[in-house]
Amino acid sequence: MKELALEINNVSFSYKDSGQILKNINLVLEKTNSMGIAGANGSGKTTLFYLITGILKPESGFVNIYGKPVKHGKFNPDCGFVFQNPDNQLFSPTVYDDLAFGLYNLGFSDIEIKQRISSALEKLSLEHLKTRAPGHLSGGEKRLMSLLSVLVMEPGLLILDEPTSGLDMKYRRVLINLLNSIKVPKIVSSHDLEFILETCDYSALLHNGKIFGKGKTGELFSNRGLMEECHQEIPYSLKNIQI
Ligand code: ADP
User: Fold this and answer.
1) Residue ID of nearest Cα to ligand 1 atom 16
2) pLDDT tens digits for 25-46?
3) Could you read off the pLDDT of 166-181 as tens digits, one per residue?
4) Could you tell me which of 179, 158, 155, 154 has the C-alpha nearest to residue 167?
5) Within 6 Å (CB) of ligand 1, which residues are found?
6) Atom of ligand 1 nearest to the CA of 50
7) Looking at the predicted structure, is the pLDDT value of residue 242 above 60?
8) What is the C-alpha R_g of the chain?
9) 129 CA to middle of ligand 1, Å?
10) Of all residues in the chain, what percent carry a pLDDT higher than 70?
11) What are residue 82's DSSP bridge partners?
12) CA 41 to ligand 1 center in whole angstroms
């Protein structure tokens, strides 16, 4: 087996004031792959991501990133998490400051920070946004900036929670092209199954806190019985190849 970027081993979790949200989750992600997580609202996707990033602690089981146990409450530079709401990620007076924030904390020099930010913005032809206040950006611009603020740190694993929500077609396509151009393993939750099909070679279906199915994205999303059981619809592009 190739090197594992992520190993989720028998993880269960409950919030204090709700029942068990995740039950015996087992998932692995190889360094060269990306994985989509599909599931209805409330199925536990965000909770799973909080456990991978160490924001929450499993009540049982463990999570390893590149073979090292995730430590609860400790920032892990190998694990780049892009929140569902970009306003949780952008809080500085300017876009530049937001993109620089993580790099400063990791101890990079001013010159290196400037270089990384310039090259990230150039790649998307968004240099003109550098001095803007994040609060004044459009929804699409905010989402891209929250992603860039993570990408400039060059994490070994990228975790994206509902990255296409609120994006128009143009920014959705920019996002797909960007994600497919970076060779970093990704774990991505989305209700946009066509987006998962385009960006993730493997996927898992989460339903009522359990993994109901996992496998190659196209095969998994073509499985009518499993998709219906998890309250999902077969994506339009796969409608002719149901199994
Ligand atoms: P998803 O991302 O798939 O929509 P979540 O992980 O956000 O699902 O939520 C899973 C379940 O956990 C939901 O029933 C939600 O109400 C519950 N939940 C989420 N956060 C909390 C919390 N802080 N305290 C109690 N219950 C929560």
Assistant:
1) 42
2) 999 999 999 999 999 999 999 9
3) 899 999 999 999 999 9
4) 179
5) 15, 17-18, 21, 39, 41-47
6) 6
7) no
8) 18
9) 34
10) 98
11) 160
12) 9
